[in-house]
């Protein structure tokens, strides 16, 4: 294969295009390449942003004067609920995830993300879920309980319509997309970097995205669980949040904000990553304090999970708790301050250029610092009691979110425009767009602090004259329309530049990171050959890198094997460990998302049988997806590599799938942990919690079932250990036997569930037991299925001596079943006995 | 100008009691300090962009960066947080319903409903709705609860807010230092008419407050010309509304002193000439989805008679 080196670069690119190229026409729906998927995310996010902005304009129009009859209360309540939900779930998170999906492989010197089909699946879930949610507005059935959906207002008793279901189902669907993106990005950042790109050489944007992705993995599951519980309460009458039946509406608030606060940083951190990427380029100086920044980002990630109660200071939390959460909330000022002053020092010691992206960064700084400071004010409990739920908070969060996310995002879009179009943005229209947006934004929201201090609560569809609110509201409304003009100007500028922009040369900003070593716009494979990385600033070190990459003078420059390949690297040192071969274009992600859409629509319409069928179909498609992997003829039948290159990942014990499963199980574990949290929370806090004198669970049967599960997992561990030593004798038979035992165990568990006299609609105690057992049953039933499929793959020769690593992936699932089983046993059986209930 | 901009019946910056006063002090203090911080950061940033660039060796840049990061990122926020907590925690403690040395505070129970307030004085048994009358200069413990969804009790000129949760009771300590009228409003979104859930608050000097309580303990006499209205009211409106001596409904606001209240429909309609008649006819237009059914089937004359009688309920 060494003769490829002699091929002309043009020929090489043609050959790469044959393997990596995107189909056109309707087949484009099967594209899984990260560049296309990232662009789709961003385009769709922009559309949802415009929808959300339109809703905001209607809100501001209604509030412009006292007692305006423009919009009635029903519509208004739908407008503000959807404005918040669309901006948070359908714009901010997918937009930054989309940008990261587009950029991360390019910055890391890789050809694609490690799970291309997963990013495509994430995109379709996002598109369909978002469409379901937004279509409710057209039907006049949009959610109307506010974007945090507090119970009991969102319960079936107080919101009998389908409105709340649209929110719960649509948002959960979109969250699947967010979690998929989080898993994808975290594993890709850890496992597919350029050779030699150790963690401390990684571009800061990748650091920010790594922390953000892990925050998504840990932060979203509590809300997914909360939504499932609330939907179960609404649709099946289970009791979780109803005080009369032993539930507690505050449980919802805890689950929601356990997600909701990290969410704010999930939105902010990628934007701060944009700032940390652009500033050194325009200051023409490496970022000062790289390690400080990394520590600050990690610190923010940890802190953000300890702050959620500051959204609940007015519910009557115990004093000590308030003091703790108050101090913790203020502490976020430290990592944020570190970042701001590191940026400042970079500018100070650099030779800054002042262009349109920099203008947006200045706007970011002014607005975000102001919003951060009002955030510290709000963390002070006695002040929060006064302004909580007033327009002061509305102003604060728009300062933080618009200043902290939208401004850096637009700066980033301008900066990366040459990537999307091959052209440079204009200066004049861009400046107009900035100033209109900046002035309009501050006119709207600076004044709104004052409105809030004058006592105007949020979420009121009208207000009487004579309270002093008329003038500030009018200013805010006028300002909001100015801001809308600014945003329109920016979009116009970006749209026009695709036609009239100057052609960008190589690396037009003289940037330091690898995404500028691609062609502009880049090919689907990013790099024909994969460069090694010897510093934090590869393109400053070697400005001609792009050319030598295009000439195929670096790693993996062959394509005659027909595989899509990228390096699999060590998570810490970045040294090459294996070759990751990636799946090609596939319809499976689209099909899976489509049947999931059927599940959601059936649930919305109460067609539960159809929902069940569609859920099974989803499972079938996902299993097919996992089938076309490893040594499968459609994946990588030919495992030969060039001499000196490492083996393919599917021929080792350590592929990205192992990490993907682990990360997904982490997210799953957080969901399970939230469920157990709910159990202990209600047990200790719910006003009417009434545990029965004797637990209804058959403790002995459960114990035996758990022991059986333990034995299976031990057996599976032994099998994998043996395989690692290269011993694969009777692998198939052993797998079949473990699958059969697993089936027995799952059957035992379903017997326990059926034999336990539970009344989930009458008491929260029974409802939580039922959900926990159902959760265990689902996992324990899937385990033997996965094991049986492995046995079948061994028979077909797809798993075994040649490709030994898949059983290790399935082992993680078994371990997870065992862990959650015994955690549940402790919580449901031992704990109540221990405290003498 | 600035002070005028801070005034208003619901303004947190126009405090009339110690809790609101403390919050207002906190605001002005933080506003001044954080305003300075913001100006400083923005000034440095613009200066860094505008000044003539100087040459820094990597070592110099690293040292300068470390100094800035420690000064601006660690010391400045650390100092601000310490000062904030040093002022904030004692002030916050003073707002809590802790036991008092002197006479016990006056207890008032306020229950949130979609979308009105039930108010009860447990010591005297006096009940009213959508208005809170309290004595000047005496601490008041407002005990809040909810009958349906989550509401929040908030009278900004007297103090902070407290959520009203179903199944729980919580206490907010307030005190009015001056006689006068204030306005409160539900602060937690509670459904369709969240915007029309205001609470009229009036602080009375102690003798006036005692007189008010005494008067409310007796039922309003029914003048003979209103007898027919009472008979029309009792079987229909009385199902939900209580009027002392007439009916005992509990689902809707107590009307025993509705004639003396400054507004109707929890702040929806000011009490002008003819407001009561208008409310009875148009309440579903003025406050859509409120719990009271339309009265279309009642003859106009009967509705007007009921309105006229209700106007007299001002013991």
Sum this structure up briefly.
The complex is a heterodimer of chains A (837) and B (315). With 837 residues, chain A is mainly α. Chain A is built from 24 helices and four strands.
Helix content of chain B: 25-40%
The helix-strand sequence of chain B is HHHEEEEEEEEEEHHEEEEHH
Helix vs. strand class of chain A: mainly alpha
The major pleated sheet of chain B works out as: 5 strands, mixed
Order of helices and strands of chain A: HHHHHHHHHHHHHEHHEHHEEHHHHHHH
Low-pLDDT residue spans of chain B: none
What tags apply to this protein structure?
heterodimer; A: 837 residues; mainly alpha; Cytochrome C Oxidase, Chain A; Four Helix Bundle (Hemerythrin (Met), subunit A); 3 domains; two-stranded antiparallel sheet; 24 helices; 4 strands; 66% helix; globular; B: 315 residues; alpha+beta; Immunoglobulin-like; five-stranded mixed β-sheet; three-stranded mixed β-sheet; 14 strands; 20% strand; metal-binding (chain A)
Write a structural description.
The complex is a heterodimer of chains A (837) and B (315). With 837 residues, chain A is an all-alpha fold. Chain A has three domains: 10-503, Cytochrome C Oxidase, Chain A (Up-down Bundle), CATH 1.20.210; 587-626, no CATH class; 628-834, Up-down Bundle (Four Helix Bundle (Hemerythrin (Met), subunit A)). Helix content of chain A is 66%, strand content 2%. Chain A is built from 24 helices and four strands. Chain A has helices at residues 9-20, 34-63, 73-108, 116-138, 163-191, 204-236, 249-283, 290-303, 319-331, 333-349, 356-379, 381-387, 391-421, 428-453, 470-500, 538-541, 545-550, 588-604, 608-627, 656-685, 699-724, 731-755, 764-796, 806-834; strands at 423-424, 502-503, 564-569, 576-582. In chain A, the strands form two sheets. A two-stranded antiparallel ribbon of chain A has the order 1-2. In chain A, strands 3-4 form a two-stranded antiparallel ribbon. Chain A is globular. Chain A starts with 8 loop residues before the first helix and ends with a helix. The model of chain A has no long low-confidence stretch (mean pLDDT 94). By secondary structure, chain B is α+β, with helices and mostly antiparallel strands. Chain B folds into three domains: 11-95; 106-216, Immunoglobulin-like (Sandwich); 224-311, Immunoglobulin-like. In chain B, the strands form five sheets. Chain B has a five-stranded mixed beta sheet with strand order 3-2-1-5-8, with no helix packed on it. In chain B, strands 4-10-9 form a three-stranded mixed beta sheet. A two-stranded antiparallel sheet of chain B has the order 6-7. In chain B, 41% of the residues are buried. The interface between A and B is large, with 90 and 87 residues. Chain B: Belongs to the cytochrome c oxidase subunit 2 family. Chain B: It is a multi-pass membrane protein. Chain B: It is found in: Membrane. Chain B: It catalyses: 4 Fe(II)-[cytochrome c] + O2 + 8 H(+)(in) = 4 Fe(III)-[cytochrome c] + 2 H2O + 4 H(+)(out). Chain B: Residues 224-314 form the Cytochrome c domain. Chain A: It is a multi-pass membrane protein.
């Amino acid at each position: 294969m060494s003769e490829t080196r002699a091929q002309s670069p043009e020929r090489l690119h043609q050959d790469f295009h044959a393997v990596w190229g995107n189909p056109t026409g309707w087949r484009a729906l099967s594209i899984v390449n990260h560049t296309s998927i990232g662009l789709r995310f961003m385009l769709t996010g922009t559309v949802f942003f415009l929808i959300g902005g339109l809703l905001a304009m209607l809100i501001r129009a209604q509030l412009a004067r006292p007692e305006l009859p423009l919009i009635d209360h029903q519509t208004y309540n739908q407008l503000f609920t959807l404005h918040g939900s669309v901006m948070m779930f359908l714009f901010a998170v997918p937009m930054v995830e989309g940008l990261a999906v587009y950029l991360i492989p390019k910055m890391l010197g890789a050809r694609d993300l490690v799970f291309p089909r997963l990013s495509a699946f994430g995109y379709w879930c996002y598109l369909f879920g978002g469409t379901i949610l937004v279509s409710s507005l057209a039907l006049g059935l949009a959610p109307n309980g506010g974007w945090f959906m507090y119970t009991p207002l969102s319960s079936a008793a107080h919101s009998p319509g389908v409105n709340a279901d649209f929110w719960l189902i649509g948002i959960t669907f979109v969250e699947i997309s967010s979690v998929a993106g989080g898993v994808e990005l975290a594993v890709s950042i850890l496992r597919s970097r350029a050779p030699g790109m150790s963690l401390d050489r990684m571009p800061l944007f990748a650091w920010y995205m790594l922390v953000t992705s892990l925050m998504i993995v840990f932060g979203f599951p509590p809300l997914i669980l909360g939504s499932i519980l609330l939907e179960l309460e609404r649709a099946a009458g289970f009791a979780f949040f109803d005080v009369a039946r032993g539930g507690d509406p505050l449980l919802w608030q805890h689950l929601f904000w356990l997600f909701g606060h990290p969410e704010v940083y999930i939105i902010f951190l990628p934007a701060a990553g944009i700032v940390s990427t652009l500033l050194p380029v325009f200051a023409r100086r490496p970022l000062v304090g790289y390690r400080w920044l990394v520590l600050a980002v990690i610190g923010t990630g940890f802190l953000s999970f300890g702050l959620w109660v500051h959204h609940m200071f007015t519910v009557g939390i115990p004093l000590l708790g308030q003091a703790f959460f108050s101090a913790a909330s203020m502490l976020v000022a430290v990592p944020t301050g570190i970042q701001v002053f590191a940026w400042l020092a970079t500018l100070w010691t650099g030779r800054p250029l002042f262009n349109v992206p920099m203008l947006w960064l200045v706007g970011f700084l002014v607005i975000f610092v102001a919003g951060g400071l009002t955030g510290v004010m709000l963390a002070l409990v006695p002040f929060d009691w006064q302004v909580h739920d007033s327009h002061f908070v509305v102003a604060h969060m728009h300062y933080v979110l618009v200043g902290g996310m939208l401004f850096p995002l637009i700066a980033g879009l301008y900066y990366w425009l040459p990537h999307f179009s091959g052209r440079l943005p204009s200066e004049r229209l861009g400046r107009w767009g900035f100033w209109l947006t900046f002035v309009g934004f501050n006119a709207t929201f600076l004044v709104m602090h004052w409105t809030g201090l004058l006592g105007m609560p949020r979420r009121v569809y009208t207000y009487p004259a004579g309270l002093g609110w008329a003038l500030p509201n009018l200013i805010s409304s006028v300002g909001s329309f100015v801001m809308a003009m600014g945003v329109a100007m920016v979009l116009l500028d970006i749209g026009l530049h695709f036609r009239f922009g100057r052609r960008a040369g190589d690396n037009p900003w003289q940037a330091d990171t690898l995404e500028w070593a691609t062609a502009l716009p880049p090919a689907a494979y990013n790099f024909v050959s994969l460069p090694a990385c010897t510093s934090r600033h590869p393109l400053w070190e070697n400005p001609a890198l792009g050319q030598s990459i295009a000439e195929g003078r670096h790693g993996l420059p062959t394509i005659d094997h027909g595989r899509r390949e990228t390096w699999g690297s060590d998570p810490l040192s970045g040294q090459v460990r294996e070759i990751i071969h990636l799946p090609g274009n596939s319809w499976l992600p689209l099909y899976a998302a489509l049947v999931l859409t059927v599940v959601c629509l059936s649930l919305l319409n109460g067609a539960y049988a159809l929902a069940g069928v569609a859920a099974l179909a989803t499972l079938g498609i996902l299993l097919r997806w996992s089938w076309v992997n490893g040594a499968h003829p459609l994946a990588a039948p030919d495992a030969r590599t060039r001499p000196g290159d490492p083996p393919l990942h599917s021929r080792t014990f350590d592929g990205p799938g192992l990490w993907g499963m682990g990360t997904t199980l982490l997210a799953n574990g957080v969901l399970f942990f939230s469920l157990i949290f709910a159990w202990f929370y209600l047990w200790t806090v719910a006003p009417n919690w009434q545990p029965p004198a004797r637990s209804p669970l058959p403790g002995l049967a459960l114990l035996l079932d758990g022991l059986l599960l333990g034995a299976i997992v031990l057996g599976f561990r032994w099998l994998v250990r043996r395989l690692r030593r290269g011993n694969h004798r009777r692998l198939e038979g052993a797998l079949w036997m473990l699958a059969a035992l697993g089936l027995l165990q799952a059957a035992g568990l379903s017997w326990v569930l059926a034999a336990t006299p539970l009344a989930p609609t009458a008491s929260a105690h029974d409802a939580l037991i039922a959900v926990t057992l159902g959760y265990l049953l689902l996992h324990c039933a899937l385990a033997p299925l996965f094991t049986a499929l492995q046995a079948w793959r061994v028979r077909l020769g797809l798993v075994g001596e040649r490709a030994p690593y898949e059983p290790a992936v399935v082992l993680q699932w078994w371990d997870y079943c065992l862990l959650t089983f015994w955690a549940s046993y402790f919580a449901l059986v031992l704990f109540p006995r221990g405290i003498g209930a | 100008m600035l002070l005028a901009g801070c005034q208003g019946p619901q303004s947190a910056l126009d405090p009339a009691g110690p809790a609101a006063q403390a919050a207002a002090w906190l605001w002005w203090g933080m506003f001044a300090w954080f305003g300075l911080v913001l100006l400083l950061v923005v000034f440095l940033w613009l200066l860094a962009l505008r000044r003539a660039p100087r040459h820094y060796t990597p070592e110099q840049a690293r040292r300068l960066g470390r100094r800035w990061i420690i000064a601006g990122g660690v010391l400045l926020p650390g100092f601000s947080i310490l000062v904030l907590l040093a002022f904030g925690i004692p002030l916050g403690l003073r707002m809590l319903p802790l036991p008092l040395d002197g006479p016990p505070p006056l207890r008032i129970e306020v229950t949130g409903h979609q979308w009105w307030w039930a108010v009860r004085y447990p010591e005297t048994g006096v009940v009213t709705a959508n208005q809170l009358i309290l004595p000047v200069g005496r601490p008041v413990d407002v005990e809040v609860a909810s009958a349906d969804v989550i509401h929040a009790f908030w009278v900004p000129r007297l103090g902070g807010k407290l959520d009203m949760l179903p199944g729980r009771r919580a206490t907010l300590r307030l005190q009015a230092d001056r006689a006068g009228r204030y306005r409160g409003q539900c602060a937690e979104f509670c459904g369709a008419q969240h915007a029309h859930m205001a609470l009229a608050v009036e602080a009375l000097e102690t003798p006036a407050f005692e007189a008010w309580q005494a008067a409310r303990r007796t039922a309003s006499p029914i003048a003979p010309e209103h007898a027919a209205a009472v008979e029309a009211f009792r079987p229909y409106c009385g199902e939900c509304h209580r009027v002392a001596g007439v009916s005992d409904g509990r689902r809707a606001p107590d009307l025993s002193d509705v004639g003396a209240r400054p507004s109707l429909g929890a702040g929806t309609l000011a009490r002008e000439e003819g407001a009561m008649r208008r409310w009875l006819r148009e309440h579903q237009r003025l406050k859509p989805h409120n719990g009271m059914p339309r009265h279309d089937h009642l003859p106009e004359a009967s509705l007007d008679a009921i309105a006229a009688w209700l106007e007299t309920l001002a013991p």
